[in-house]
Amino acid sequence: MNEWKYDEQSMTYKKIKKARRILRNCIVYFVSSIVLAVIYYVIFALTIDTKQERQFKQEYAYLESAYDSLGMNFVKAKSVLEHLKQKDTMIYRSVFKTDPTESGLTFETRNFSMASIMENYNIVNMTSATINRLVDRVRNNRAKMETALSKINSDKTKFRNIPAIQPVENKNLKYNSVSVGMKIHPFYRIPKMHTGLDYTVPINTKVIATADGIVENIVEDAAKGIAIYINHGNGYTTVYAHLSKSLVGKGASVQRGKLIALSGDSGLSIFPHLHYEVWQNGKLINPINCFFAELNPTQLKTMIYASSNIGQSLD
Description:
Blueprint: E1 3-7, E2 12-16, H1 18-47, H2 51-96, H3 106-113, H4 120-153, H5 156-160, E3 177-178, E4 181-184, E5 191-194, E6 197-199, E7 206-208, E8 213-221, E9 225-233, E10 236-246, E11 253-254, E12 259-263, E13 274-280, E14 283-285, H6 297-308
Antiparallel strand pairs: 1-2, 3-6, 4-5, 6-13, 7-12, 8-9, 8-11, 9-10, 10-12, 10-13, 13-14
Helix pairs in contact: 2-4
């Protein structure tokens, strides 16, 4: 049966050819099929994973869990290592009178820098191995630290005889200092070994004993001016020079923190200051390495940096 369509221009009815109707139906069917196919594909993609997608998701879940675990372990290890580093600093300065060695993490740092060119599983394995090495190092260092600290704590009397504080009130590092080492002499204007730590304190600043001991001698000469020598036992001797006045006598027993003198400008001094020396068994020690009982590692680092960058001594 033919279909008719009204033509407005001619105002007559015209027959619709069957071929055009078939083409129109095909186009509608084709477009509908494409739309349905897209809808089915989207539903399938959102609800059903392929084998490769499932594998990727499993790998991602594993990596995410592994990184979270390694991250927590790394933070814990870093915190413990920092704590051990502070103890290490204290022990090295008190026992060996020197700065502690570095922790030696160069190998681990180099490995982490290669992570960008490694496969995911290799990164996890490398990181896990690094954490395990750090944990082992923490255990070993902890055992060493505890042994050393137990030796120190086992003899409190001996510890009291170790110079462990500054000879003046300077916890906030308000006074500049000049360290041990080759310095330009203020009078001779040539490089000369500076055997102590110079504090730029005003005249009549209180000077205290840095450890328990006996006043071995009080002298006054052209070089050090008025100077006090204290024997602390165990081979330790401290010297306090360029004083304005001594407040103790020869043979007096002193305790750590006891007022022993007032600072000054006596002797060969270009500026009012206190010159402080520490000796052990006849060998000179940098006094900065003996302030572990008063200053924290950050303060010590600041003081070492500031004092070492002054090229001229005050005496």
